[in-house]
Write a structure and sequence with these properties.
255 residues, mainly beta, 4% helix, elongated, disordered N terminus
Amino acid sequence: MTPRSFHSLLLPALFAIIGCNNGEETEDRLSGVWLFQVTQNDQLTCTESQAHNYTNALEQNNDEISPWTITQTAEVSDDLFFAQIEDLGENSAVLILGDQAWPGTKREGIVTFTWTDAETTTETERHEDDGYVFIEEQQRTATTTITFNRNGAQATGEATLRSTDLIDWTESETWDPKLTGFSVSQIPSSDYIFDKSGFGLTNRADDSDCNGDSCQLNQSTNCEGTGPFTARRAQFDEDGDYDYLFDAGTVGDNR
């Protein structure tokens, strides 16, 4: 899989923070509007994996050496934008990015903001007369962690994104096509699993194509990337100041 720009996925999540002065000295307070500069020198790298119980499948040999070497490089300018933080006291803070909020914990001058988005959807088809069952389950998780290391009115840190996209298919091994009205598998196995001749494998209604009473295919994609940033607190102390700065910055439309 071609690596994608880490910040192209992260920056919609890296955009704001809320705060007030509360009588603290400017150099010592966490709350306020901050100017972030994100270095675009890292890539979001992804790996794919699969598991299945299909028979006659060609096992992938990861040790095979290809005669081709493909190298892809890109140089992208830094991103510059305003953000805002709210110190909630005790050991907590909040980072608000656009219309989203990231809770944070404070420890020894470092604030760690993190949140995990998770979604699972399941679709089940069952034929009452034949007993045929088809299940498709999709799971997606994306965890964003922003480490904010403040030193007075300046800060450094990094943002890490880890995501997993998983699709799991399960289907009856055999079924009666006269009752169900179809004889071709609903699992897109021919896109992922191949025999030694290079033909995609599928589950047929009247043949034994898998080990067990059902055919199963699991396809997952895991991505991870980290990007460094620097930040400086701007001199905006009035409530609502950040409202005028939300769209200010140099973030490209295509990233």
